[in-house]
Amino acid sequence: MKKLKIGLAFVDDRKMKKLNKTYRQVDEPTDVLSFPFNEDLPEGVYFLGEIVVNVDEVKGEEEVLERVVHGARNLLKSVNSVNAR
């Protein structure tokens, strides 16, 4: 069984707006972005990707956790689409 790795970053509105414009061509901030990598790393580790959470868009630990779970679901969906090919 492989170990899964997910990167997690927390950014502000300014940085999230820049990421959203660069990768989605949307010129406004959002609450969470997911960047799938789906890459085998050494020592049996599988890198799913990166989740970026906008701390200016969430209030409290529960909302942060909801965004992380949402991002993780998106990364897992990307694995399923890669495996279906």
Key words describing this protein structure:
about 80 residues, alpha+beta, Collagenase (Catalytic Domain), 3-stranded mixed sheet, 3 strands, about 35% strand
Question: What order do the helices and strands come in, and which of them pair?
Answer:
Elements: E1 3-11, H1 13-24, E2 32-41, E3 45-54, H2 60-84
Parallel strand pairs: 1-3
Antiparallel strand pairs: 2-3
Task: Please explain how this structure is put together.
The chain has 85 residues and is an alpha+beta fold. Helices cover 44% and strands 34% of the residues. The protein has one domain: Metalloproteases ("zincins"), catalytic domain (Collagenase (Catalytic Domain)). Strands 1-3-2 form a three-stranded mixed β-sheet. A hairpin with a 3-residue loop joins β2 and β3.
Unreliable stretches, pLDDT < 50, 5 or more residues?
none
Overall CATH class: Alpha Beta
| Structural class by secondary-structure content | alpha+beta
The gyration radius over C-alpha positions equals 14 Å
Strand order of the largest sheet: 1-3-2
Query: Element order, helices and strands?
Result: EHEEH
**CATH H-level name... which superfamily?**
Metalloproteases ("zincins"), catalytic domain
* Major sheet: 3 strands, mixed
